[in-house]
C-alpha cells in the first residue's frame, strides 16, 4: 500500500485552500472493492477530541503517492467506515 502510518497528506478544500492532514489509517473493503482513508487535521491531532474525515480513495496508476479522493455518499459506506473507526478507537483504548 502506498500509505504508511503517520503519513501526512495535503487536501484542498472547496475554496482551493490546502490543508495538512495526518493519516490515521487506510483500509480496503472486499465486498465493495473500494479503499478508504481516515485523516485528521494536523493542528488537531493532539487534541482530546478531533474531527475525523474519511474518504474513498483510488491510487493514480502513474504515481503510488498520488491519490484521488472521493466523498463518501452512501449510508452503507458510512456504516463501514464508522465500524472501522470504532474498532480502531477500541484497540487504542485497550493498549
From TrEMBL:
<dbReference type="Pfam" id="PF06949">
    <property type="entry name" value="DUF1292"/>
</dbReference>
<comment type="similarity">
    <text>Belongs to the UPF0473 family.</text>
</comment>
<dbReference type="InterPro" id="IPR009711">
    <property type="entry name" value="UPF0473"/>
</dbReference>
<protein>
    <recommendedName>
        <fullName>UPF0473 protein SAMN05216232_1742</fullName>
    </recommendedName>
</protein>
